[in-house]
Design goal:
The protein is of the alpha/beta class. It folds into three domains: about 25-195, Thiamin diphosphate (ThDP)-binding fold, Pyr/PP domains (Rossmann fold); about 220-380, 3-Layer(aba) Sandwich (Rossmann fold); about 400-570, Rossmann fold (3-Layer(aba) Sandwich), CATH 3.40.50. It is built from 21 helices and 18 strands. The protein has helices at about 25-30, 50-55, 70-85, 95-110, 145-150, 160-175, 190-195, 220-230, 240-245, 250-260, 290-300, 355-360, 370-380, 400-410, 420-430, 450-460, 470-475, 480-485, 505-510, 525-530, 540-550; strands at about 40, 60-65, 85-90, 115-120, 155-160, 180-185, 235-240, 265, 280-285, 300-305, 330-335, 345-350, 415, 435-440, 465-470, 490-500, 535, 555-560. The longest helix is centred in the N-terminal third of the chain and has 18 residues, at about 95-110. Mean pLDDT is about 90; it is low at about 1-20 and about 590-600.
């Protein structure tokens, strides 16, 4: 009988394999070889064979069952962003595609590592007859690999057992190399049921793959960047989501406090630098803090780290924010294709932020900037987090609720938010602190993100508080996630801003209301029936009490804040937002709205 050789990494548990592996078992072995291996999903179709193979790996692989596939992919996306390592999503391909595209697309656009292991539920020799659920394309079938290719970094199709093993290994590599992202393996039934035959197939090895080498920044690029920084009078750092993906928060703090260079973050980068630091300017962009926008706009040099400098970051390339004609730009990214992509930079530095930042620090001995004074001056003219609360009886402000959350949340809390106006409230009103972070749907920007993302935080960092902020529209999309959180016995808090409308749509309709009003359900009663701790609040004191109570309890707590519709996205537009391009044109408008300008929803 043939054997599959195993190359054992140091410290790896020896395992004797006495017979040829099925493809399903080989996939399970590859998963088990990974550090902190975690599977999230639902057994279905031929992926039941993989789950069956994982039965004997339960001491090495954590398997989490959720009630709907979208919960799995959003959890995997958020966990990838927090850890930098891929989570495995396993489920029937038709429903991973049909139900779970939100997390896949978010990971693809937001650069979070994820591995999707799915089947096309093919009919074997009858597949060309277009049987039930067939997903390999052709007449009478849908084309699962083609559909997934549109929203993943890469999609592999495994047609035999050896490919099942090797393509799973390749998926892990591709998901974590260069710019991270979601990678899918679509298994033909032969790939899972069949056995590896080394006499007729390429040699296969089961092993924990060696760590992927991060691209090393060139000495020339570091030297050129340091020279530009050293000659700058008003340098500013723009920190993006890449800081989080590289786990470079500590390196950034040390560099900033050593050099005195102020930090502004992109919306996706919020939480990568503590906003209570005297060198923190806040968030930039169309809905950012005017303080941060002014400081960046006044800079003579910008050090952009881990950001693509996309439209939502640069306020649609507003020249008052970034203008490479009058400012020097240093761009740092782990993916060479992202460098000088949207704006031409003076120096491109290819490398992981965790390596580049210390290298720049070593190249700048004795450099010091007057960043504290510049931030203080900017804050004096455009306050950041000291806005006066304005809620009154019967008119609870959603912005005020988030401001109170900022005061009451533990310093190291992980805050997740949804798409829509609640996201803007978090960007503008929640002050992140050292040790905590903020996760938002920064890629696809879809509703239904906050609760599954908070679940991922609770699973990944159980010693930190996980708090989801969402509107009633987004919350109703994720009632299945709440059920799964209770079933998994997670500790988290869900804060629902319940104003009875689709906030961004309602505000953009400017009184011409159609298809944006929601029925007011008793969400607290629904959640209580599931087994959650619940509170419904309508004033700020009650919000504060409910948050404190949730902090003291274990399990899932739901706080429903009955907010008004008075808070609108228009109130949070930065000074760089000259026109409300997000609103409907209206019958009486003389000038049409420019639909080519992108919206942050």
């Amino acid at each position: 009988m043939t054997r599959v050789e195993e190359l054992r990494a140091p410290g790896m548990r020896p395992q004797e394999i006495s017979r040829p592996l099925t493809g399903a078992r080989a996939v399970a072995e590859v998963i088990a070889c990974q550090e902190d291996a975690t599977v999230i999903g639902m057994p279905g179709g031929h992926t039941m064979q993989i789950y069956d193979a994982l039965y004997s790996q339960q001491d090495r692989v954590r398997t989490l069952l959720v009630r709907q596939e979208s919960v799995a992919t959003v959890m995997a996306e958020a966990r990838g962003r927090l850890t930098g390592t891929p989570t495995f999503v396993i489920g029937q391909g038709a429903w991973v595609l049909g139900n779970a595209s939100i997390g896949i697309m978010e990971a693809h656009l937001g650069a979070s590592p994820m591995v999707l292991l799915i089947d096309a539920t093919d009919g074997g020799g009858f597949s060309h007859h277009g049987p039930y659920q067939a997903g390999y394309g052709g007449y009478g079938a849908y084309d699962l690999p083609a559909a997934l290719s549109a929203i993943t970094k890469r999609t592999f199709v495994a047609t035999d057992a050896t490919q099942a093993l090797q393509m799973t290994q390749l998926a892990i590599k591709h998901a974590t190399t260069g710019e991270p992202g979601p990678v899918a393996v679509v298994f033909h039934s032969r790939a899972l049921f069949g056995r590896i035959d080394r006499s007729a197939q390429p040699p296969s090895y089961l092993s924990a793959a060696p760590p992927i080498e991060r691209p090393t920044p060139s000495a020339t690029a570091i030297s050129r960047a340091a020279a530009l920084i050293g000659s700058a009078q008003r340098p500013v750092i723009i920190a993006g989501n890449g800081i989080r993906l590289a786990a470079a928060e500590r390196e950034l703090r040390e560099f900033v406090r050593r050099t005195g260079i102020p930090v502004a973050t992109t919306p996706a980068g919020k939480g990568t630098f503590p906003e209570d630091d005297p060198l923190a300017a806040g968030v930039i962009g169309s809905f950012g803090h005017d303080c941060a926008n002014a400081l960046v706009g006044d800079a003579d040099l910008l050090l952009a780290i881990g950001t693509k400098l996309g439209a939502s970051d640069t306020a649609n390339a507003h020249p008052a924010l970034i203008d490479v004609g009058r400012q020097s730009l240093i761009h740092v990214d782990v993916e060479s294709l992202n460098l000088s992509w949207t704006l031409p930079s003076d120096v491109d530095v290819l490398g992981d932020a965790r390596d580049v930042i210390p290298a720049l620090a070593r190249a700048l001995p004795g450099f010091s900037s007057d960043g504290v004074a510049r931030v203080a001056e900017a804050r004096s003219t455009a306050p950041v987090f000291d806005r006066e609360l304005r809620s009154s009886p019967g008119a609870l402000s959603g912005r005020d609720v988030v401001a109170v959350l900022s005061q009451e949340a533990p310093r190291t809390a992980i805050i997740t938010c949804d798409a829509g106006e609640n996201r803007l409230f978090v960007l503008r009103e929640f002050q992140s602190r050292e040790g905590g972070t903020v996760l938002q749907p920064n890629g696809g920007g879809g509703m239904g993100y906050a609760v599954p993302a908070a679940m991922a935080a609770a699973v990944t960092r159980p010693h930190q508080s996980a708090i989801a902020v969402c509107g009633d529209g987004g919350f109703s999309m994720t009632l299945t996630a709440l059920m799964s959180a209770i079933e998994l016995k997670l500790d988290l808090t869900v804060l629902v801003l319940d104003n009875g409308v689709l906030g961004w749509v309602f505000s953009g309709q400017r009184g011409r209301v159609i298809a944006s009003e929601l029925q007011r359900f008793d969400y607290a009663a629904i959640a209580e029936a599931m087994g959650a701790h619940v509170a419904t609040v309508s004033d700020l004191d009650a919000v504060r009490d409910a948050l404190r109570g949730a902090r003291e309890r274990s399990g899932v707590s739901l706080i429903v804040a009955r907010t008004s519709t008075d808070d609108r996205y228009q109130h949070l537009m930065s000074a760089l937002n000259r026109d409300d391009v997000y609103a409907v044109a209206g019958d009486d408008d003389e000038e049409p709205v420019d639909r080519a300008r992108p919206a942050l929803v």
